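Hi P.,

Sorry for the delay on this. The queue was packed all week, but I finally got your sequence through. Input first:
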Amino acid sequence: MSFQMMTWTVTCVLGISLGQLLFRKAALALPAQAGWMDWVFNGWLVTALALYGVTTLLWVWILRSAPLHLAYPFMGLAFLIVPVLAYVLLGEPMRWQTLIGGALILCGVALAAQADR
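Then the structure:
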């Protein structure tokens, strides 16, 4: 996988990860007894869905050039990116187990990215 394709793939993963934070913000913004208008006019939710739409189109574009067995392991990075962003941006707790698991995922992604070399 070329460096440029890896860059686009990581960009896609970052978009997906940011979308998860936006979904969390959307969930927190909903009242306990949310009606359909609360869902439709939830700006966080609309933004998250738009980001997911763009990111999905980017992912399809990536898959035109990169084999799935090389591109997909990068999605595992979201398991580290999302908790780190949640910690930094939302003040959610960070646990050492998450960091160790993330490090193992990073090793797996690096190994998978080398598979074609």
